[in-house]
UniProtKB/TrEMBL annotation:
Domain MacB-like periplasmic core: from-to ranges: 20-236, 441-652
An individual GO BP term: cell division
Any one GO MF annotation of this record: transmembrane transporter activity
PANTHER family: ABC-TYPE MACROLIDE FAMILY EXPORT SYSTEM PERMEASE COMPONENT 2, MEMBRANE COMPONENT OF TRANSPORTER-RELATED
Keyword Cell division on entry: yes
Entry-linked InterPro entries: ABC3_permease_C, MacB_PCD, Macrolide_Exporter_MacB
Name of the protein in question: Cell division protein FtsX
Keywords for this protein: Cell cycle, Cell division, Cell membrane, Membrane, Transmembrane, Transmembrane helix
GO cellular component: plasma membrane
Record localization: Cell membrane
Transmembrane portions of the chain: 21-42, 292-314, 343-366, 386-411, 432-455, 682-709, 737-757, 769-791
Membrane topology, from the record: Multi-pass membrane protein
Source superkingdom: Bacteria
Amino acid sequence: MIKNYLKIAFRNLWKRKGFSVINIIGLAIGLATCLLIMLFVLDELSYDRFNKKADRIYRVDGDIKFGGNHFILAVAPDPMGPTLKKDFPQVEQYVRFRSNGGFLVKKGNENVQENNVVYADSTLFDVFTLPMVDGNAATALQQPNTVVITETVARKYFNTPNAAGKTFIINNRHNYTVTGVIKDIPSRSHFNFDFFVSMASLEESRKNNWVSNNFNTYIVLREEADPKKLEAQFDALVEKYVGPQVKALMSIDMDEFKKSGNYQRVLLTPLTSIHLHSNKVAELGANSSIQYVYIFSAIAFFILLIACVNFMNLSTARSANRAREVGVRKVLGSLKNNLVKQFLTESILISCIALVVALALVAAMLPYFNQLAAKDIKLNLLANPWLLPGLLLLVLITGLLAGSYPAFYLSSFKPIQVIKGKLAAGFKTSRLRSGLVVFQFAISIILIIATIVIYKQLHFIQSHKPGFNRQQVMVIHNSTPLGNKVKAFREEIVKLPGVDNATISGYLPTNSWRNDNPVFADPTLDQRRAVSMQTWDVDEQYIPTLGMEMVAGRNFSKDFPTDSSGIIINEAALRLLGFTDPIGKPLYFMRDLNNKDDVSTLHIIGVIKDFNFNSMRQQVTPLALMLDAHNGNIAVRINSADIHQLVAQIARKYKTMAPAEPFNYSFMDDDFNNLYRTEQRMGVIAVSFSSLAILIACLGLFGLAAYAAEQRTKEIGIRKVLGATVSHITAMLSKDFLRLVVIAAVIAFPVAWWFMHSWLQDFAYRTDISWWVFIMAGIMAALIAVVTVSFQTIKAAISNPVKSLRTE
């Protein structure tokens, strides 16, 4: 029986080749897109799961409100890890990371800048699964001045992975011994370091400072431990360890600290949740968002649904063509159950053929998709045991979903009516078919609106004035190798034609986050008048070079020797301090949080307009600029038609003063855009998948238009004989489809607005969802429908009426 079903199914496919191709292509694109998104989603969900203890590893985070600011941090105080292991039996082990920022490594006669560097405890290998290639994991990071490197780094510097015992010269003055070589960290890790320097080399790790948060701290819980119960005990931990240091610094206990609206809480974030659920301050790298997993999963589902709807529509639209077949079969004794099986066999066969085409499409598209999404996804049916059964299940579901309605619809025909020719068919006879077309275009319109809003937000971010001019600014990273020549280097480069200005600073708006410090408005260090703010060391040229705007007071100047104790604050700091006339007002700055007596008295000389120095997902926070820049970054304002030549001239000046050092630079607008690289990638992917969804909908519309025109052939012939024009007939055939597009738009607009409004809430600075977005989406959908339908309608309208009427 099955052999007979297959034979008839192949025969019908071959008999109606045109519409079989449309069905197969539509399902193939739908399956290919669904498979690509499925691979992407599974890749996103698999982050950090290569660790054997992944389900028991948690990162210790901080939720802090102080001085008018609220921070949720991915870092903790230096004693947090050791204390948790000591005080809580549920904690099996801990490890801390302290970002290094990079260092210079000697290679031959040259230095190489390495940025993927971190300090790590010797317990690193007790927590994370990082297979050792050479060395002893148990002792690798126990001693000061030791380092564990990846296999790639070992080959880069020593031409062999067996590099244990070899030595690095770091920053031209420190010797570090390689005590271990590990395999390269998998790409599906939320951190990706090349150098793990022993924590024993870092004095800061032993300061027992509970009021400064700089260490990414991870713990492994014992098998029976409950993380929620453990987290509930952390308030007492804060009281016990943070409380005394707060009292020593601010002369208040934790109760008074809390009464002022301040707090410090400790949170646990599961390791496997970090990549998709954590966007905290001081992350070890840029994470993704679970929102994109939901969005793309929904797109995959709807694309496949649209492809199935196409199949249903085309199958039922051509019901008249198969009605006599059904009637004859029923007269000859065929049961409805047998007919259903026959039609489902056809749909599953089409799905199987579509799967083969889809796999070929995915194999061809995957390299481009990986490049677009910055992934390393592979389609390997043998390496992924779930993939083949999953695909077969997907094909079965697709075949049954696509073929179910046509199968039951066609098998329900009454043989007497069919044979007498009384069966009505066509586009206008099925409300369900019209509803399916509305559904297709509603989804398409939602995707069009989503794509426009995503790109509108990205454009807003890129064109939004952040309060400084990031265009034409070259950033020379790490001026430390220049030593005391850094100011002379600045004087040399500002003489070059095409250089407008240059500044030396410890921090730039496009750098990563740094710690806040308490600044007090009262000499008694009354915490009720404290403001938590970032403090940046800059020189006199910082504000003019970066095009910042003063709103009160003046900039730093060499003409005022007292500016060494001057400070410039931003508007956010001014609002929290509450000064109506801030110029000349003193502020008290604790330079060492462990030493209450190390307080500097500064006076405000100016107020700068707020500028964005965090992601635009966050509001501008208080900031102070201080005149104390000896090294760090050099920002150069360029005004040259030949930027490459100017960069080469600056590089030569640098090499003259630091011949063995690498010249590393970037442009500030590129650094700014890198903050939103994930959004940009996701935007392009969303556009690509949305375009595929619209293409599939167009394929179905094309087929429906062909059948609608075919079933009204005689009507068209009569109208032409009576004088109807081609444009009149085209409009007549198109209006039914346009009516459905209008209905789809009415449904899609509020749904799209709700989804995109929710997405935009993640940004502190965001575009609006303008009315023209909906108008444009509606017009685009209508144009797509008209263009798709027009090919068939014009073809029908220009056909010879004699041919359509000759049988009458």
